[in-house]
Structures are given as C-alpha cells and as structure tokens.
Design brief:
Tetrahydropterin Synthase, Chain A, 3 domains, 8 strands
Length: 283
Amino acid sequence: MDRDIPEIRMDAIKGKIGKPLKYFFLLIVALILFRFLNPFVIVGAGERGVVLNFGAVQPQVLDEGIHFRIPVMQKIVNMDVKVHKAETGATAASKDLQDINTSIAVNYHILADKANWVFQHIGMDFKERIIDPAVQEVVKGITARYNAVELITQREKVRDEIKEMLKSRLLNYSILVDDFSIVNFKFSQQFEQAIESKQTAEQFALKAQRDLERIKIEAEQKVAQAKAEAESLRLQKENVTPQLIQLRKIEASIKAIEKWDGHLPKINSGAIPFIDVKSLEKE
C-alpha cells in the first residue's frame, strides 16, 4: 500500500504539468496555422482589393481597410488607384512632313470600381501595354493635321485635342486621364535653322519697313514745310503794292541819310555819289 501512494502522486503531478503543455502546444499550432492560412487581409490607402476565388476574378472590389478572406480558396490582390505620372516619347510627322520628336507627360489613375476589370484584362503593366502605345498613336494622329509652324503657334490647341482624344481612348480601358502636358516639341536641326533664318529675315523686313515709314513721314513733313513756306511767300507777294515798295525806298534813303557823317566818301576815281533829296520829296 505504501509503494502505491508515491506512484499515484507522480501521476497527478504529471497530469497537472501535461495539460498546460498540451494547451501551449495547441496554441503554437493554431498560431502557425493562422499565420500560414492568413484569413485577414488589409487594403491600404489609395488601393482596391481584387478578389480571386481559386484564381478566378470576382465582381466584388474591396475598399480600403481590413477584410476577411476564406483561406486557401480566396486570394486578394491590391491594385493601386492613386494618380500616377507617365512620361512617354513619341515620334511623328507634321502635315508638311517635318519630323517631330515629342515628349508627353500624362497624369492618370485607374477607375476604382473597375480595378478588377483592369487586373483581369490588362494586368499590372498597363502603362507599357496601354498608355504608351495610346499616347504615341494619338500624337501621330493629331500632329498630322497641322504643319510645323502651326504646331508651334497653336500649341495650346494641339494640346487640348491630344488630351481629349487620349482621354476618350484610355477610358475604354477604365483608365482616367487627370492631366496632360506637352513637355517638348523638337524638330529636325535643318528645320530649326530655317525657322531661325525666317525670324531673322522677318526682323530685317520689319526694320526696313519702319525705316521706310520714317523716311516717308520725314519727306511728307518736308513737303508740308515747303508748301507752308511757298504759301507764306505767296501771301507776302500778294501784299506787296507799289505804295509799299515806294515806302520801303523812302525808309532805306532815310536810314542812309541818318548814317551819313557829312563827309563825302574818298574815292580815287569815278563819280561822286549823290542823293537827290528833291526826287525823294516828289515821290
């Protein structure tokens, strides 16, 4: 009987220790399974969750936040729906067959409620597969309507037309264009030199035209001045009468007498000058 008592106590002690170890082991297993199966998924800010059931895309699109998924069966793929920038180069030709190298910047984002459609039909590399080819094709189509000079002088109009056409085209793929800008229009070196020469010629022509207008104005001023002087002389001539002429002669003679000092001028030869005062009186 005494030998059985310690054995019973040892079994009780083992039972008390075994139960916590069992629970701890089960907890570890549960954590491992939870970690492996991962029944919860988080959709971050600016993202949408695409639900896949055994790889098949579902109509449901998950919003931002934490969501439950069925382990093994379901997989959630996060799609970025924030605004992104894509810069694309395009080579085109103008209406007058001038080569143009264009750099285009597009701000775009995926339509949030169509994230599953984009993932299913396009995938994650939609920029390379959809946006870049669309930009190149639209730029070629629009620039072909204008000659090279018009592309420079009507840049805003060209920009708006490209934006509207690109917006319509990408909307078919559930991609929305937020903004669009033409970073650069670069023409061939020969054309740029021709434009520079044309501008220089226009500047020279404008200067020559201004000089011609200045000379013309100066000539008109001289003609007007000459006409004014001629008119003045004419009026003076009309005012000259025989009485006025006689008066001027008398005034001249009086001035000569006033200046005479009473001495006859010393002359070696010739007649002595004489003023006929009587004749002046008669006049």
